[in-house]
């Protein structure tokens, strides 16, 4: 082992002075002995004798390097000028025989738990990283030791990163750093935020140092598989439950990654969870939805929401979210559980990081603007695919994807009345009231699950590890899905409900074992009907309400203050087209789509291909949307009925 070197060991010398080396007499005699034998040219070219003579001293780096120089000089005197290259190949051969493939010519010499590396032209010891040039000048690269100690290769992307170790203030720190940072003088300065001694002046030298030390030790640095996210990893298993995987993701997500772990007593957690399931069907559904997140990818499903909302305080919505989180890890706020106080990009990247684990978001009201309108869009997460974005250097970033459940809470529904059918379709919306509490004793439940968590999710995933188990799970899901599709709900709602029911059955068999699984009757009251999902149906109901609330403006006379929206005659409201567009758009409905639905479903009278008809209002002929108002007649006119309508009956010109 090379002795430690510090700045005090280096002294300036004049050109006429000899450099002083601190060598004792035994070392000096060893050098003389190493070169005492005179070898011939044939010895260098046809035998291993000169190479073996110095190879045995390789564990003493200082003496080893001196002998190499001495032997190279002797080889040159007999006409062999390639001794160093020959010796290097000899070392490789010997080391490969011993199960190694490199030799450390200039080892790092710092105290610490990390492996010894070849520092090349640099000196690395407890005093830092420095160079000594041919004139004996001392150049500091870094004032503390810093080395790479393992190379990480991401399973998803193939990108390589280095795990570096550095000692500041007497303590060793570790950090995974992309090579885009380490090998770029502009980027490497970012490490100063982590306590690394680097400046704009030393950045280039530190980059050169990392390049050389990795190149020299490429065969020595352990190469490990790494992952930057959670969930299913092709050919590896389920992160973070895969042995030997190292996290190499963004530092912002290391908190969430670290939160997915087991702690405390599994039995205490199960006791509380079982009690919550028995007392509340909503808690049972919400807990099952957390497990269901791990089924979406293997069963080929799509992400969906389960949203708990209610204006009453103390219904246990947040505690239910904590219980769902405790299936996988710590339920502390800000660790695994996130809030709606985030950007669109933040939500997308967090969903992609969680990947197969449930995305838990609390307090919908944090996403609302000053007018009380929510800025959150269900479509952003329900599609399971993020936005494509360009990179600074050209091209596009890797598009983020995810396949999980999104469990949310708030004081209001997560989708408004004007939301598209696709958004409504992807949400199981559950209202919590004072008479329908989710978690009765929130304080007691939260106290237990904060100390006991993270066991059930791991066991649940383990149950799905075999192909036989997946096949059986698929059969159970298909059975639930088929039965649900026969009810008055949509396929997407049936898919989400079937996932929840299947997950609860597996959790019941492997975790809770109470023989009380969720049933279709339990979850059906919370599923949207085909009619309620339809944006056209909701738009029609809104416009009928709008006509009723503005009835005075559908009559000629002084009561309407001079502003007229149209006329009401019999079962039809003649709405001036501009007023119809204004009212529908203000509520968030697309007027063209709404009119198309109204026409297809016999809710308006039309003229040819137009969606309007002419009507004289206040003596002026204007285009109107002729909206059929609800009554006791059948919901829809048939095509024959529409064709048989006499225009003159309604005073249409």
TrEMBL record:
InterPro entries: Cch_HTH, DUF927. It comes from Hominimerdicola aceti. This is DUF927 domain-containing protein. Residues 534-632 form the Cch helix turn helix domain. Residues 139-401 form the DUF927 domain. It holds the Pfam family DUF927. It comes from the Bacteria.
């Amino acid at each position: 082992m090379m002795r430690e070197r510090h700045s005090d060991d280096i002294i300036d010398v004049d050109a006429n002075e000899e450099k002083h080396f601190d060598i004792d007499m035994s070392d000096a005699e060893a050098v003389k002995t190493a070169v005492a034998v005179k070898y011939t040219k044939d010895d260098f070219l046809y035998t291993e004798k000169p190479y073996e003579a110095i190879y045995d001293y390789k564990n003493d780096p200082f003496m080893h390097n001196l002998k190499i120089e001495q032997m190279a000089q002797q080889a040159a005197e007999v006409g062999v000028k390639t001794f160093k290259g020959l010796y290097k190949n000899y070392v490789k051969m010997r080391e490969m025989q011993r199960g190694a493939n490199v030799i450390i010519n200039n080892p790092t010499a710092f105290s610490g738990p990390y492996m010894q590396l070849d520092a090349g032209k640099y000196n690395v010891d407890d005093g830092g990283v420095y160079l000594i040039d041919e004139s004996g000048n001392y150049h500091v690269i870094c004032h503390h030791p810093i080395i790479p100690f393992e190379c990480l290769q991401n399973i998803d992307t193939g990108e390589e990163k280095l795990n570096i170790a550095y000692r500041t203030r007497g303590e060793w720190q570790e950090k995974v750093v992309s090579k885009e940072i380490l090998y770029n003088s502009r980027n490497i300065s970012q490490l100063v935020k982590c306590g690394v001694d680097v400046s704009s002046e030393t950045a280039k030298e530190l980059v050169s140092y990392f390049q050389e030390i990795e190149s020299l030790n490429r065969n020595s640095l352990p190469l490990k598989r790494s992952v930057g996210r959670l969930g299913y990893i092709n050919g590896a298993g389920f992160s973070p439950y895969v042995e030997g995987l190292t996290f190499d993701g963004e530092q912002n997500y290391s908190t969430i990654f670290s939160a997915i772990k087991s702690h405390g007593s599994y039995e205490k957690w199960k006791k509380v969870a079982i009690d919550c399931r028995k007392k509340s069907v909503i808690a049972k559904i919400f807990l099952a939805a957390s497990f269901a997140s791990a089924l979406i990818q293997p069963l080929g499903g799509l992400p969906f929401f389960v949203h708990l909302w209610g204006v009453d305080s103390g219904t246990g919505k947040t505690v239910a979210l904590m219980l769902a989180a405790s299936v996988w890890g710590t339920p502390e706020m800000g660790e695994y559980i996130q809030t709606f106080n985030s950007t669109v990009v933040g939500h997308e990247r967090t969903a992609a990081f969680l990947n197969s684990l449930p995305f838990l978001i609390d307090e919908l009201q944090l996403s609302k603007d000053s007018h009380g309108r929510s800025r959150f869009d269900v479509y952003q997460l329900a599609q399971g695919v993020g936005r494509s974005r360009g990179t600074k250097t050209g091209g596009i970033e890797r598009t983020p994807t995810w396949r999980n459940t999104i469990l949310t809470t708030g004081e209001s529904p997560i989708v408004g009345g004007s939301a598209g059918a696709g958004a409504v379709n992807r949400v199981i919306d559950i209202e919590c009231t004072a008479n329908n509490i989710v978690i009765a004793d929130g304080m007691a439940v939260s106290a237990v699950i904060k100390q006991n968590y993270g066991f059930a999710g791991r066991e649940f995933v383990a149950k799905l590890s075999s192909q036989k188990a997946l096949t059986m799970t698929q059969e159970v899901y298909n059975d639930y899905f088929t039965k649900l599709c026969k009810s008055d709900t949509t396929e997407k709602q049936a898919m989400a409900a079937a996932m929840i029911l299947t997950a609860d059955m597996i959790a019941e068999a492997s975790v809770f074992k109470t023989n009380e699984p969720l049933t279709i009757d339990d979850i059906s009251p919370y599923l949207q009907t085909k009619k309620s999902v339809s944006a056209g149906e909701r738009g029609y109901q809104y416009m009928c309400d709008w006509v009723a609330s503005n009835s005075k403006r559908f009559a000629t006379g002084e009561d309407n203050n001079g502003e007229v929206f149209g006329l009401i005659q019999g079962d039809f409201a003649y709405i001036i087209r501009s007023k119809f567009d204004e009212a529908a758009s203000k509520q968030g409905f697309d007027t063209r789509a709404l009119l198309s639905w109204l026409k297809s479903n016999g809710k308006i009278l039309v003229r040819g291909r137009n969606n309007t008809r002419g009507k004289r209002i206040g003596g002026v002929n204007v285009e109107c949307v002729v909206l059929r108002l609800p009554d006791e007649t059948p919901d829809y006119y048939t095509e024959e009925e529409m064709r048989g309508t006499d225009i003159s009956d309604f005073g249409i010109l």
